[in-house]
Design a protein that fits this description.
Structural class: alpha/beta
Radius of gyration: 19 Å
Number of strands: 5
Shape: globular
Largest sheet: 5 strands, mixed
Strand content: 15-25%
Length: 159
């Protein structure tokens, strides 16, 4: 193979590897960082490898989306120290109180019943999974109900 073709092939391979290793862009990371720091004294910019699974309960008490996300978390056996549940909204009125209590025994849980998160630009309108590595977002999902299988597969690959 001619030398220039080898170089072109290596260059193409290197570009592919670099592109594949890029962090995902979550446009609301600064808002999430400020929210976590100011409201919960957690500096996510110093996070080595952690998942924040944010579930809003402010729009309804028994939404199917909340139910599907809670079921997913109940099924998974993710290491406790790897994930934090961030539950927003009025949890006392939620029909999921018992399930939340049980999940709180397994996962670190932060409750934001006053919806302080709404004061920050986080893009929260539905559940969000943020996987943060070395202070930046490695992967994120804005979770619609049809996305649950994809999120489940992602979490299973982390186990």
């Amino acid at each position: 193979m001619p030398r220039f073709l080898k170089r072109a092939a290596y260059s193409f391979l290197l570009l592919g590897l670099l592109y594949g290793c890029q962090q995902e862009v979550y446009n609301y990371f600064d808002g999430f960082h400020n929210y976590m720091l100011q409201e919960h004294q957690v500096d996510v910019s110093k996070t080595k490898d952690h998942i924040y699974y944010i579930i809003p309960f402010s729009n309804c008490n028994s939404c199917q989306g909340s139910d599907l996300n809670l079921s997913l978390l109940e099924e998974q056996q993710i290491q406790q120290e790897k994930i934090t549940l961030l539950l927003t909204g009025n949890l006392q009125q939620s029909t999921h109180r018992q399930r939340i209590r049980k999940l709180s025994n397994h996962y670190t849980t932060i409750q934001d019943e006053g919806n302080a998160i709404d004061q920050y630009p986080t893009g929260l309108s539905k559940p969000i999974l943020l996987h943060i590595q070395n202070g930046s977002v490695k992967k994120y999902f804005l979770i619609n109900d049809p996305d649950i299988p994809q999120v489940k597969e992602y979490l299973q690959n982390l186990i």
